[in-house]
Amino acid sequence: MSVVSQNAGSRLAVLLAASIIIPACLVGGALTFGLRLDSGTASAQSVNDPNPAVNNPDKFAWDLFIEVNRPALVGRRGVPDPNKKHGDPGPRVWETWKITTENGNEVFLDNGRNPGPWETPQAKDAKGNLRKFLSPPKMRTIKFGFVDRGPSFEVTKAPPLDRDSQEARINQVGYEFIVKEGLYSLDGQERFRATQRKVEFPIGTINVKAHWREFTLEEIKGGVPARYYTAEDSGKVWGLTGFHMTSKDLPNWFWATFEHAENPPPEIRDRDRYTKLRDPSGRLREVPDPLKNTYWQYYVLRGTQVDFVDSTGSPTILGNTQLEGGMQVTSSCMGCHARSTIGDRMDNIIVNGRRLYPNGAYFFPSGKLTRIRKQPEAAANRLTVNPVQVVLWREDPQKPEDPEKPDLTKVVHVMGAIGAPNPEWFIDSAGQRRYTQLDFIWGFLHAQRENP
Questions:
Q1: What is the distance, to the nearest Å, from the Cα of residue 232 to the centroid of all Cα atoms in its chain?
Q2: Is the overall model pTM greater than 0.85, yes or no?
Q3: Within a 10 A sphere around the Cβ of 423, how many other Cβ atoms?
Q4: With pLDDT > 70 as the criterion, what percentage of the chain qualifies?
Q5: Using the 8-state DSSP alphabet, how is residue 370 labeled?
Q6: What single string gives the DSSP state of each residue in 173-229?
């Protein structure tokens, strides 16, 4: 048995293995080192740099990419197979983590139920392949509304899959934090907010978001899938086109995004070395040795992000053509995710002596506001994914305002959140908390009421 201590903030990793690189991120610590264990001897790697996520983010991103994309050990969640190489078939380590997107969600269950222990069986298709449970891009399944001056939103039932679909997953460290703190239900998030504590995931937490496209029969016959990491589910063959990762190696997370080299070009080109959008047709450095001569050599690092702004105070921009299509020029991973929040329960909000929305909640699923008859306490009070500029309008300006039916709104412009967060998103003029941040995790929006 070998015990190795790492830099401040990392845990002790106690490892029992043979002839395998085991990253700290896969055993609970920050990904700042790996251990090669051969015949009981251990040697730390990459320990000279105390903070590679900041000092060499591009290399750190590739190192993380290599580790989470190791073939997984069959029958275990989050454990690499020591006998397989990167080009070998089979699911990757991250594909055995808990899924947090709409279809097949393993964390935020119906009726806000406790999702249980980490080691639960994974669903398989008739051929024994792990089910993908892909979902449409998130923006297609969100309805927005406004409570007081703070927007809120809920998630609708995911529509049928198209040929471009996504999934998001969280590793064991992050999953067990959610379960321990009761954040898997909407009520639990509201209870946590009431404690005035800060939601802060432990070091070692990793989230991934993957974008897949279904190959046509013609593409399959033409050998196109050979250049992609693929997964088969119920007779369909999917190719990985986008891959986004966040790791809790920094207080505001480390952000890295990858794409397939054959994706369409991005909306904007190189800006600077570390934090701006990159052209996926150009490589930031050579493909790491473990990935050479495999389908992984066709994937490129699009960029990394470690702060909201650069040294001049200019906003840093990072996006993925597959995951944030149409919003890359006004998109910042950190700026957007900083808006993941929970506010007071909607039926507890009183403005000017009047309880808001006593007969229903307001949402605009397609640009113009519509009224949905439902109990407001069933909805979540959250900031929208992106700031929304709006103008007020009245259905009939000649009629007096109905206190049961506040002025409606229509969307003028939606833009990505870039730069440092606006404190007014979270704190009102009296210094009271309007919204509690959920540590940059948008997956929380899928939480449901407990036995509604």
A1: 23
A2: no
A3: 7
A4: 59
A5: E
A6: HHHHHHHHHTTTBHHHHHHHHHTT----PPTT-EEEEEEEEEPPHHHHHTTGGGGS-
